[in-house]
Amino acid sequence: MPQQAGGTAARRYTSAVQLRPYQQECIDRCLEAFRLGIMRQAVSLPVGSGKTVIFSHLIRSLPPLSPTATQTLVLAHREELLYQAARQIQAANPDLMVEIEQGGRQANLVAD
Questions:
Q1: SS3 category, 95
Q2: Rounded distance, CA 17 to CA 38, Å?
Q3: Least enclosed by CB within 10 Å: which of 42, 49, 64, 80?
Q4: How many angstroms separate the CA atoms of 26 and 29, rounded?
Q5: Contact between 19 and 32 (Cβ < 8 Å)
Q6: pLDDT tens digits, 79-108
Q7: What does the pLDDT look like over 14-72, one tens digit per residue?
C-alpha cells in the first residue's frame, strides 16, 4: 500500500462503480493535498457531477488521522441527501457499516 502523511498506509479497495476521469482527478488531487498536510479541503463541482460518488470513494483512500480516528461523519441538510449518501457510501464500500443518525434515530457507535 502507498504511504500517506504520517507514514500510515492508505486502505485500497475495488469498487463496481466506474469513476469518470474528472472524479478520479478530484480524488487524486485531494489525496495529494492531504499528503502535503492540507487537512481542510473543499470541493466545488456543478449539480449532478457526482460529488457524493467522489466522497464515497475518498473515504476509503484517506488514512485514519490516528489509530482511534477511523470513523467518517457526513452531514447533510436534507433527509433525502442523507439516504443518498448512505446508499452511495455503502455501494462504494460494501465492507463498511454505514448508519444514519437523525432526530430520534441513533447510529450504532461502532459504525464506520
A1: coil
A2: 27
A3: 42
A4: 5
A5: no
A6: 999 999 999 999 999 999 999 999 899 999
A7: 556 789 999 999 999 999 999 999 999 999 999 999 999 999 999 989 888 889 998 99
Ramachandran quadrant class, 37 (left: phi over 0; alpha: psi -120 to 50; beta: rest): left
Whether residue 90 contacts residue 55, with contact meaning beta carbons closer than 8 Å, is answered with no
User: What is the SS3 assignment for 2?
Assistant: coil
Task: Give the separation between CA 5 and CA 14, rounded to whole angstroms.
Answer: 22
Cell 500517506 sits on residue: 4
Please tell me the distance from the alpha carbon of residue 68 to that of residue 55, in angstroms, as a whole number: 21
43 Cα distance to chain centroid: 12
Does residue 5 carry a pLDDT above 60? no
Q: Please say whether the beta carbons of 69 and 104 come within 8 A.
A: no
Q: Which residue in this structure is represented by grid cell 492540507? A: 38
Cα–Cα distance measured from residue 23 to residue 110, given in angstroms and rounded to the nearest whole number? 29
In the prediction, which pLDDT does 24 show? 96
